[in-house]
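Q: A reviewer asked whether we had any structural model of the full assembly, not just the individual parts. We don't, so I'm hoping you can provide one. Inputs are below.
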Amino acid sequence: MSGTHGTTKTAGPAVGLNPTEQPEVAGSSGGGPQIEAVRRRVRELLPAAAVITDHARLRTYECDGLAHYRVTPALVVLADSADHIAAVVRICAEEKVPFVARGSGTGLSGGALPRADGVLVVTSRMRDIREVAPLDQRAVVEPGVINLDVTRAADPYGYYYAPDPSSQQICSIGGNVAENSGGAHCLKYGFTANHVTGVEFVTPDGSVVELGGRAPDSPGYDLLGTVIGSEGTLGIATAVTVRLTRKPEDVVTVLAGFPSTDDAGAATSAIIGAGVLPAAIEMMDALAIEAAEAAVHCDYPDGAGAVLVIELDGPAVEVRQEFDEVERLCRDNGAFEFRVAKDDTERALIWRGRKSAFAAVGRISPDYIVQDGVIPRTSLPAVLRAISEMSASSGVRVANVFHAGDGNLHPLVLFDESKAGQAEAAEEISGKILDLCIEAGGSITGEHGVGMDKSAYMPRMFSEDDLDTMQMVRCAFDPDNIANPGKIFPTPRLCGEVPGRHKGEHPLARAGIAEIF
Amino acid sequence: MAVDALLSAGQSLAAACDDVREATDTDAVDGVHPRFSARPGSTAEAAGVLRAAAEHELAVVTRGAGTKLTWGTPPERADLVLDLTRMDAVLDHAAGDLVAVAQAGCPIESLQRTLASAGQRLAIDETLPGTTLGGGIATNSSGPRRMLNGTFRDLMIGTTVVRADGVIAKSGGRVVKNVAGYDLGKLMTGSFGTLGVVVEAVFRLHPLPADVSVLVAQARDTGEVAAMVRAVLHSEIVATAIEVDWAVTGGGEIGVLLEGTVDGVAARTTTARALLAGAGAPDIQVADQPPAWWGRYPTGTLLKLTCALSAVDHLLREAARLGVSVRGSAGSGVLYGGLPADADVPDTVTALRGVCVAAGGSLVVLDAPTAVKSTVDTWGPVAALELMRAVKQQFDPHRRLSPGRFVGGI
Ligand SMILES: Cc1cc2nc3c(=O)[nH]c(=O)nc-3n(C[C@H](O)[C@H](O)[C@H](O)COP(=O)(O)OP(=O)(O)OC[C@H]3O[C@@H](n4cnc5c(N)ncnc54)[C@H](O)[C@@H]3O)c2cc1C
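A: Here is a predicted structure for the entire assembly that you could use as a starting point for your response.
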């Protein structure tokens, strides 16, 4: 993301991308006896500078990147160490008070939305890169470390950290772990889960455990793989061991202009179908191009109904072969312009249009919703057409910027809050887009997470049994439901009512669950 | 079990599945003899069998091709073998999406045949002939290609599991990019059948490479191994695998696998040869097929050895000193040791485990004769064991799924 577009780059609370003011989500006043006890005990334990209780300062943490959910936390802790975090969590566990972890607050699903009756544990002071070990292809970092800083630290050794969310200049590694974040290049290189080999983790009872490590395949259950992507609902990562990737010998970045998204989609399928695995294939439609042009003058081809940004990387000879193939397939599928970045400056310009697209949409619409859904790549043309029909019939404009290579759509649904009914209409279209994704056999989120925002959609994708089974993991980690409660799952599972409490009764779970709900 | 209880359990199983029989000696699991064997033909049947097993409190061991049933510790008890070999279908191959769906009893090899017809593959090696997908997932088995492509945990994008209580649960889906909900597939991977029965899985696929080459170099000491591995690993040629085969006499071979386009592989082979020669390799062979030892476990008592990448040469040296031959992925720090029948296994395991742990890794005794197993600590120290027990308690509170086969007696 370019720093010129209004999103804060600092450790402090993020400015919402789409700050539509709304009343605070209902919650308790933050003044109950338990939270009072927590406040007192945390103050006794931690240095004054690490504890925020002043209402005005608390309010600056009221939302993450999804600014229309707002809750003022009862207490904010700016943790300095794993010990701090473990101690605070232990106090929360003893007082049965919920806690929510927060990294940089760039999340787009309300994952770091605080609890009015709980503690927000912020990791933005924990920014030490403890070790860069190129011979082990690992780095060990604190959770508040900014994603891009890992790459910067590894760069002198010829290495980088592969997962590159567009927010990489500001988002934290801890947040990446919690969201299993991806980026444009995860088409080839995979997600956070494929690049983290170990975490030090504070469980919801305040104990500190090591999951995974420097070597792969730790004996026992893969709890590391289980906590990655768990959105802060299983505990807090206090140190992260990441895998470093060797920088490629060659990188070629291409901008291809097409008459329509259908053509660009066909080109994408043809490339993948030919056995070429680019590092990235990103698509923008006409409206997104218009916005990016207005914001950053990226000089995309005139009159394009869609552009593809394609990046190939690897050994130079391989890249050259793949490049020839990609050029041929783009032209065969209607590309009227095929521009290759000559140097890093041109490469940066091509990427700037793409990376600034979310923020740029602010230039053409006062308000917008960033949707995140996934479809099988082959359904791309059909789903894009359906979205555009929906847009035409409802009058709600939708700009499309997305990771075409892996079918991860990011429709930007535009509206004007000040015009009656527009917000509701946009919400409706946004929800219908998720339905399209589910119908196509896809997912309701490819990278932004479920958080607060999409928990209500989970039952559309998963059965009650599926969700119940996921929550068995939750119950193992957090039987009292104090770690980021209310996120991911539409309904909490009562962990006391587990099979096994009444020995001999069968079949247990179904009957038990039926009673609970 | 009392006779009438047995009878009634048998009846329930037979009502749930049309292929249930009394177990024979060949159904024994690492020396433990079960009563029944059930071979469900569908997920619904498998769920029915598990419900019946729950009702009658039967301990269940799931079996694919049975190539790794002696891995881990022997089960404390086994009443029923759940045989998945009838569930061996490739359910869908969406070539355009590079995704395949298969039943757990499907042999890896047969999935690969189906995929190859469309120029694709699941980038996972079959380390023992006949291995099924389910067996590979349960043991998290992996071969040389893990260095570039990862393991089951990285390539499985959706999972259907039947729980101990017979409930069918899915996680993930059919798209590669997906962060909705917890990733139960990763939890199941390497869980040795102690949490649930994986019945179906969805995989991310890769295109088959147009060309392949393998370079094999002799190494006279571990210093040469370190130099060669480092030279290739830290270069820009993007090898698919770097393997080592190391004898107790302190000598062996390094193998480098390159995959890609025809011109690309040719050029990278030239570079790799120069890198190996520069690292001191006296004699380098290039072939289009890997050597016979490639991706095969060493013989004897089988150890899985892991360590930080920079410690691989040290591990090889110590292993040789202790009489352990080693083979495996020098480029990812996951190797396999073989101990001869006459070795002093407990002392060797203790000493070598110390080396692995000090190097940031672990040692697991994967497979050994029963007599040997009873004398060693199979899994070694396990971090977060209490949390693992809590997970087990949630998924299988009565400890009926492969009880005792896993870490900490889980
Ligand atoms: C402009 C923009 C572009 C983006 N592009 C991408 C993209 O390309 N790909 C992508 O995947 N995402 C993207 N995102 C979303 C977001 O940046 C990622 O989800 C990121 O990983 C969040 O990191 P954070 O530090 O801001 O986490 P936060 O927003 O602070 O928290 C996110 C979640 O993680 C939890 N959490 C935070 N720290 C920890 C910890 N140490 N331990 C446990 N849980 C923790 C929180 O409780 C919360 O549930 C984008 C966001 C913006 C604003």
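A: Points you may want to mention in the reply: The pocket of flavin-adenine dinucleotide is lined by residues A 1, 7, 17, 64-65, 100-108, 111-112, 123, 143, 165-167, 171-172, 174-176, 178-179, 181-183, 231-232, 236-237, 358, 447-448, 484 (CB under 6 Å). Chain B has a mean pLDDT of 97.
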